[in-house]
Amino acid sequence: MSNESRAEQIEYAIESDLTVDEFVGVLKASMLSERRPVDDHACIEGMLEHADLIVTARARGALIGIARSVTDFHYCCYLSDLAVDERYQKRGIGKRLIDETQNRLGSRCTLILLSAPAAIEYYPRLGFEKHSQAWILKPGKHTK
Any idea what the CATH number is for the domain that residue 56 is in? Predict the structure, then answer.
């Protein structure tokens, strides 16, 4: 089966009512669960409840990909989670999830993300630029 015909079987949608189990399932299937609190039901529930934009990819109804973002829709959008089930990777699904996310944003909105270590080479191929001035303040740490 060609990549094009496989892509035709994937349905993309904006969803705001994913279950914790569905979200955790795709995080685990994509290996993103290694860097997400998948055993903390309340945290995952909050991540879903307070996301501003969730784009999904489904194959025969099963969730196989997600782009979960926090955004003001005009100036910036933090693409917090981009996950595609490993069995469906390398078919353009991640790119399409990003494209669908961008389609919902204002024309001046910058898309921002932190790459998983294994995906560092992926994002430049899509046109993302590396930004050397990003900073993070981890949980439990406070400003001095």
Answer: 3.40.630.30
Task: Name which of 44, 2, 3 is nearest 20 in CA terms.
Answer: 44
Distance (Å, whole) CA 43 – CA 6 = 34
Which residue range(s) make up the domain with 36?
A: 3-126
Examine residue 139 and state whether it is found in any structural domain, yes or no: no
pLDDT at 121 over 60: yes
| Structure confidence at residue 28 (pLDDT) | 94
The H-assigned helical ranges of 31-118 are 41-49, 93-103
Structural domain total, the chain: 1
Spatial separation of the C-alpha atoms in residues 32 and 48, rounded to whole Å: 15
Site of tokens 């009512």: 17
Local confidence band at 109 (pLDDT 50, 70, 90 cut-offs): very high
